[in-house]
Specification:
142 residues, alpha+beta, two-stranded antiparallel ribbon, two-stranded antiparallel sheet, 14% strand
């Protein structure tokens, strides 16, 4: 309601719980009760738009965990490193490295599985089926 009332452009990513606001500087200055300035780094030729202190209304403050992208300076550019192919880590490689043997997937509810999420990459059922088909063809992709 706050963003709608301010008339700013925004998108919501419900999977990540993120609201991204992108609009004209004057609209964002009004939204956050702040002023933006442009900072230039002469040596690296970097430019960044930065906000002064900002304020959000009390009625929305509890719903906001953080406001990103209005403070701070970019890191200086670095030369790109040559990166080779990622290591070929398969279930067989892990089993050999950790001396795992005699384990058979049963699908029992006594065993638990954890799925981790990193940088917005989520588990996908079709990827799981493809993984099992490629690396564990004799096991169910449960």
């Amino acid at each position: 309601q706050w963003l709608d009332a301010a008339g700013v452009k925004y998108t919501v990513n419900y999977d990540l719980g993120v609201v991204s606001v992108t609009d004209e500087v004057t609209a964002l200055e009004g939204l956050l009760n702040t002023r933006f300035t442009v900072a230039h780094q002469m040596r690296t030729k970097q430019t960044v738009l930065r906000a002064a202190d900002y304020v959000v209304p009390a009625h929305v403050e509890a719903a906001i965990a953080t406001v990103l992208g209005v403070h701070g300076l970019p890191l200086p550019p670095r030369e790109a490193r040559q990166v080779g192919a990622p290591p070929d880590v398969t279930p067989d490689v892990i089993n050999k490295a950790y001396k795992i043997s005699g384990v058979k997937a049963t699908g029992s509810l006594k065993n638990r599985q954890a799925v981790a999420e990193f940088q917005g990459q989520l588990m996908n059922d079709s990827d799981l089926v493809a993984f099992f088909a490629k690396y564990l063809p004799n096991e169910p992709a449960a």
